[in-house]
Amino acid sequence: MLDRYEEQLQELKVQLHDLGADIKDAVASAEIGVQSLDISKFNDARDSLKNVEQSANDIDQNILKILALFEPEAVELREIVAYLKITSELVRLSDNVKSFSKRMKNHITSEIDFTTLQEYSNHLAKSAFKAITCSIESLEVDSKDAANDLYRKTCVEESKTDDLYSILEKNIMADLCKDIEKSAESIEILSTMRKLERMADRAVNITKLMLFARVGGEIKHFG
Known about the structure:
By secondary structure, the chain is mainly alpha-helical. The chain contains 7 helices and no strands. α1 packs parallel to α4 and α5 packs parallel to α7 (183-215).
């Protein structure tokens, strides 16, 4: 029975790895898109995520099967519960990436000179996407120390996104005062950049859940 459980758990981890890989591919394309303002890169990002919903459903079904067949307890149950919540976070994260990519395409083709905002938007995107990469890497770790290290790295990047968004917001609001006719477009850009903050928040949630899986404690402190 133990061997069968380990086989099912390994299959589940492979599914999570594949889903995480799709998200990493998407953010890599989106990051290049932000730097180059190349619309095709945002198309690539969305294409990388086209199967996320189905992949997440398959993972959830596998989790339910494991719970029904093996009735895991203690450490095993903690890990399975963490994976179940992580799947939900990954879906929401992919939705943020898709929405961000779609919005960026619209901004690039609009009348606003987006190049004037690139300095801070580039840094903001870089920190958000680095946080996501760290969170995806955390899915692969088995030790408490490794999970904690990636959690701290993700938190650092998430904190950077907060600071960089505040700077970008001040710059956009200053420009808005100079050209009030473009206020609607400026607010739309801020809304788009806010999604990068949300992505970083999701990344922190994922690494928290992996800490729960490896360390234990009360799940309300991790998700």
